[in-house]
Design brief:
seven-stranded mixed sheet, globular, binds magnesium ion, Rossmann fold, binds guanosine-5'-triphosphate, about 200 residues, alpha/beta
Length: about 200
């Protein structure tokens, strides 16, 4: 898929204020600093359309980006961000879960996992939440440029095994490096396929 245009539309603190639209959208979620905003920039061929930072907790709002005037990518705050008050953390958690549950045009959530780490409970819990609520998702192992191939394979294998303890089948799984622009074609091809399927079965 060609990205012909990409623009920032709006930031929100709650799903109720998000664009009222029936255009399809895809969201990116995962722990703070896992590389959500960087991945969006990489997919859209942009340098800093989505704001990134080496310090966790950069994205704290629901950010909509309109692509090809036809669909949205949504950059979300990370879950499990520790350096805010308990109250703020609860608000963020609420904002994320409300968004997941109350956005009928949300076609797929990409859950980003740091490829250098073994399965983390907070990620597994989040996947459980999506599964229980029938929110479609795919997994993206990020920062593969920072991970040795043997370590990467081991971490992915561990994840597969953990997921198969509670799931009958595995979700689609992608590898990415925003640094080296890896994974872009596979992810955009996947998005294209979902959009094609939708055009034969529209949202409304
Ligand atoms: P929050 O908004 O804070 O939740 O973080 P985020 O998930 O949006 O992460 P962000 O894209 O801001 O990236 C966090 C840090 O990781 C930045 O310093 C990025 O440059 C770095 N980073 C992101 N993706 C990659 C990658 O694929 N490879 C490498 N080496 N660094 C990456
Ligand atoms: Mg971010």
């Amino acid at each position: 898929m060609e990205i012909n245009s990409a623009s920032f539309v709006v930031s929100n603190t709650s799903v109720e204020n998000c664009p009222k639209t029936s255009l399809p959208e895809f969201a990116f979620i995962g722990r703070s600093n896992v590389g959500k905003s960087s991945l969006i920039n990489m997919l859209l061929n942009q340098k800093n359309l989505a704001k990134t930072s080496s310090t966790p907790g950069k994205t704290l709002l629901i950010n909509h980006f309109l692509v090809n005037e036809a669909w949205y990518l949504v950059d979300l705050p990370g879950y499990g961000y520790a350096r805010v008050s308990l109250k703020q953390r609860e608000q963020l958690h609420r904002m994320i879960s409300d968004y997941m549950l109350k956005r009928p045009n949300l076609l797929c959530v990409f859950v980003l996992l740091d490829s250098r780490h073994r399965p983390q409970e907070i990620d597994l819990d989040f996947l459980e939440f999506l599964g229980e609520n029938q929110v479609p998702f795919a997994l993206v192992f990020t920062k593969i440029d920072k991970c040795k191939k043997s370590e990467l394979n081991l971490n992915i294998e561990n994840y597969r095994n953990r997921l198969l303890e509670s799931w009958e089948s595995l979700p689609p799984l992608f590898l990415s490096s925003s640094e080296k622009k890896q994974g872009r074609t596979a992810l955009l091809t996947y998005l294209t396929q979902i959009l094609k399927d939708l055009s034969s079965q529209p949202l409304e």
